[in-house]
Amino acid sequence: MTLVVKSGGPAALAEWQAHFAECAPRLDVRGWDDPDLDPEDVRHALVWDPDPGRLVGFPNLRLIISSGAGVDHILRDPYLPPHVPIVRMGGMATVAHMADFVRLGAFALLRDMRRIMANQQNRHWEEFGVPRSSAETRVGVMGLGTLGLPAAVALRDCGFPTIGWSRRRRTIPGVRCYEGPEEFAEFLARTDILVNLLPQTDATRNIIDATSLALLPPGAAVLNAGRGSHLVIEDLIAAIGAGHISGAFLDVFPVEPLPPDHPVWTHPRIVVSTHIAAIPSRRDRARFAASAIAAFERGETPPNLYDPAQGY
Amino acid sequence: MTLVVKSGGPAALAEWQAHFAECAPRLDVRGWDDPDLDPEDVRHALVWDPDPGRLVGFPNLRLIISSGAGVDHILRDPYLPPHVPIVRMGGMATVAHMADFVRLGAFALLRDMRRIMANQQNRHWEEFGVPRSSAETRVGVMGLGTLGLPAAVALRDCGFPTIGWSRRRRTIPGVRCYEGPEEFAEFLARTDILVNLLPQTDATRNIIDATSLALLPPGAAVLNAGRGSHLVIEDLIAAIGAGHISGAFLDVFPVEPLPPDHPVWTHPRIVVSTHIAAIPSRRDRARFAASAIAAFERGETPPNLYDPAQGY
User: Fold this and answer.
1) What is the distance of C-alpha B18 from the center of its chain?
2) Best to test chain B binding among A98, A102, A127, A264 (most B CBs inside 10 Å)
3) Maximum CA pair distance of chain B?
4) Which of A100, A158, A274 comes nearest B119 by C-beta?
5) What is the pTM of this model?
6) pLDDT tens string for chain B (312 positions)?
7) For a tag on chain B, would you pick the N or C end, based on fewer CB atoms within 10 A?
8) Residues in B touching A8 (Cβ below 8 Å)
9) CA distance A63 to chain B (A)
10) Interchain CB contact of A5 with B (< 8 Å)
């Protein structure tokens, strides 16, 4: 069985092959631009941002695995073979890294990391306090799926009062969960640090806009680790400028890489990271892909299967 | 009863008076430079870095309260009246803020916040992963006292495997505790992120030096939220340069404010913050001071009493 890999460029191929040799020694792992590759041999593909029109050229392709948590980089291929199932990257490593990242973000917003950064950059000694401890700061997690639910639990265990919001009602011990559009305003009104981990769907596009930001209490902060399309950055900047929102930590952007002249890079109240929230190692990804392929080949439903009806 | 305050400068006096009016309305709260102050009236002093020779001029002084967690800024007064007890600032707010700060520091070191900062400053898009999750990273807390013990518990509850080291054996559920000089090397050898919360004593001066850094495993990181005198910064920089230590987060320094030309400000592997780990609000500090004064006046031993024999 041949697995074709398009993730990390040609330089990464040897590393992918070494990792798959450990966890799935019977797989024939080939590069995306391998001149000796017979397209008919390819049964599985592990891809990030595949060139449009290439996947359809593998007539025996049975499973596509995204090398990241999202699938939009695959769905934008207009020639994508419609009947091949797509698996989103996941596994325990992705979940653990995301839970760590949102906790970094929550503590960074709580303790004004942006101000620490500016003081270091300017060599400015400033002994400043912060108004609240974690126990006095409610975190609201939007999206309680594969990544969001464990993140909410991790924040709860850190002692942040934690609430959640999702399309369908979830039950998490110690985390009050809100459901659907009708409970969105109530969720926002109780949220001091808004953590977005929603999937990218048509229903969630621009969901954090001027209207929803205005529903947050004064001094609230925003952590976006979902998708760039969820947040209207101009509205965020305006709400910070108006003094209503105290700051933000953004890991995802509408256009990536974030252009060098984008104003958030230098915004004094916004921490920018570069889509690093949940990057499992290649070893972790190879293991997850191998387990998904094995499940599929046994006739089971692989984990993290993309559902076009739900949009994620 | 008169309380004299030297903390935050003359501009802060009205705020101190307002906070004490809430929690201790019978206290007469006066400024350090109040020209109408009769030195004989002063019974309590809340101070930060008091001018040497001033405290001895209050003949009826019964209690000195430090406006910060340390007392060295008081002890350096050569004329300090030796029989007046000193109370270190504390209370739940200080404990909570310190626990939050060490968690910020641990997640920042785990997720390479210094690299995030540099990328933002340079507008550089870099999707980088990190080798370990919190569950795979052992945190070692040095100092398990008023601040250290709750910090160790908070780190444990975040899912970091957590160990501790202190002069005397402590027992903390889920936290393996090491004791004394003879177990220091074993503690260090098991520590991926070293968190220092020791008190400042002669025995702990320069305790994090080339020798102890060399005992940490390769790739370990250091968070100093104790005192600047605990860490030999030159040894830390050398250990980072040698590739043995991966980075550091420093909140305290031998000389504060940290001089503008000090190399740590611009070090690519060191996050610098400006002695902000546990700054309770003036309201929190007034409440703690009021409760300490009340306990003392009832004839009880006030909390956080400085013990010259222990050195903290």
Assistant:
1) 27
2) A127
3) 65
4) A274
5) 0.87
6) 899 999 998 999 999 999 999 999 999 999 999 999 999 999 999 999 999 999 999 999 999 999 987 899 999 999 999 999 999 998 889 999 999 999 999 999 999 999 999 999 999 999 999 989 999 999 999 999 989 999 999 999 999 999 999 999 999 999 999 999 999 999 999 999 999 999 888 889 999 999 999 999 999 999 999 999 999 999 999 999 999 999 999 999 999 999 999 999 999 999 999 999 999 889 999 999 999 999 999 999 999 999 988 877
7) N
8) none
9) 26
10) no
